[in-house]
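Running low. Invent one:
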Amino acid sequence: MFTYHTRYEKYAHYVPLRRPLVEALAVRLSTRFAARADAVIAPSAVIRDELLARGVRRPIAVVPTGVDLDRFRPADPRAARAGLRLPAGASLVLYVGRLDREKSVGRILVAFERVAATVSAAHLVLVGHGTEAERLKHLAGTLAARDRVHFLGVRDHAQLPQYYAAADVFLFASETETQGLVLAEAAASGLPAVAVSAPGCDEVVRDGETGVLTKSDPMALGDAVIGLLLDPERRAALGARARQVAERRFDVRLMRDRTLAVYAEAAARAGRAVR
C-alpha cells in the first residue's frame, strides 16, 4: 500500500543538487514505488490523474485526509478570541501551517499589506514555524501594518480549533499541495478560505461556494480577503456551506472506513485477510 501525500518534486530545493535533476529523480522514484504497490491512495483527484498520466496502472483510490468534525467545528469567535488573547474587535485573517518556502507565506504578507490599507481593523495571525520564519518576520517588519502581523509560532494541536473559530477568513497561498489539510480544517470550522487556484486546493475550496480561489499574485489574494472582510453576510454564507461540504467530504470517520475498504480490496486481490 502506498499513500501519495506529498508532491516530492516540489521539495527539490532542499537538496543541494541541480534542481531539474532532483525533480526528475523524485518523480521517477515515487512513480516507480506507486507502480509496485498493491494499491495506491491519493488524497485528491489531481494526484490520481498525475499518477495515471505517469503510467501507474495499479488501483488508485481517492481518499482525502479526514478531519475530526467534533473538534473542528463552528464556535463562538468571541469566546475563542478571549481564550487566545486575540483582539476582540479585529477582523482576523488566519494562516496555519509551516513557514517554509513551498508554502509561499511571503505572498500572504504582501497580500495582507493591501488588506490592512483598506480594512483598518484587520490583523494577520500566523500559526506555525519553519525554515523561513526569520526571513518572513523581517519582511513583516518592513510593512506599514507590521504592528498588525502576529507570528505565534507552533501551537499545541489541541488549540488549533480555537484559532479557526476566532478568525474571520483563512488565507492560503501554497501551490504545492496534494490536498491542503488546513483548508479542510478551516472548512470544518465554518471558516471561509481565500486560496490560490492550484491543484489540490481547488478540490477543497469551491470558488464562490465555500471560499474564494484567486490567481497567485498578492493583489488578487488581498482583494479577495478584503471582499470577504467587508461583507459579513457573504462570509457567513460561505462558512456555513464550507461546513456542510466538510461533513460530506472530509469526516475522518468516513475517510477511515474508505481507507479500510481500500486495504480490504487490496488484500482480497492478493488472497490475504485484513486483521
